[in-house]
Amino acid sequence: MFVCLRDNLLSTLEGVEILKRVKVLDLSFNDFKGPGFEPLESCKALQQLDLAGNQITSLISLPQLPNLEFLSVAQNKLKSLSMASQP
Fold first, then answer.
1. How far is the C-alpha of 42 from the C-alpha of 22, rounded, in Å?
2. pTM attached to this predicted model
3. CA distance 80 to 71
4. CB atoms near residue 15 (< 10 Å)
5. What is residue 84's predicted lDDT score, i.e. its pLDDT?
6. Of all residues in the chain, what percent carry a pLDDT higher than 70?
């Protein structure tokens, strides 16, 4: 399943936990700042996550996503590459 929420004004991931079977999630060009990625923990099937073009400063709250193969965080405001350890 592919969900594209690109180019909106989203600033929170509340509600994303219902996407348990999503494999590709495009959240690029929204207003995410992070931390606050804990709701993604329910998305265990997630293989691709696009967070490009937001205002993200930290990935430390990004949960372990066992099937994640692709993560884009281009065009953000990262101050560190520290993140929760991925398997």
1. 10
2. 0.91
3. 15
4. 9
5. 57
6. 94
